[in-house]
Amino acid sequence: MLIERFFNKIKQCRRVATRYDKLAANYLAFVKLASIRIWLRANESAP
Questions:
Q1: What is the DSSP letter of 45?
Q2: Could you tell me if 17 and 41 are in contact, meaning their C-beta atoms sit under 8 angstroms apart?
Q3: 1, 10, 13, 35: least surrounded by Cβ within 10 Å?
């Protein structure tokens, strides 16, 4: 369930969902950046 929620949040990023990047390394880098952004938002609201 946790993994499914993560992928749903990742797919909110248009660039990840449509895969604009041709190279796998560039795509993976953007997935990592999107993951960090999601993680920071989740920890930002924590007390």
A1: S
A2: no
A3: 1
Residue 36's pLDDT is 92
**Number of other residues whose CB lies within 10 A of the CB of residue 16:** 19
pTM for this one?
0.71
Domains: count for the chain: 1
Cα(35)–Cα(47) distance, integer angstroms: 21
| pLDDT per position as a tens digit, 20-44 | 778 888 888 888 998 998 889 888 8
Position 29: which residue type?
A
Could you tell me where the DSSP H helices lie in 1-47?
2-10, 14-18, 24-44
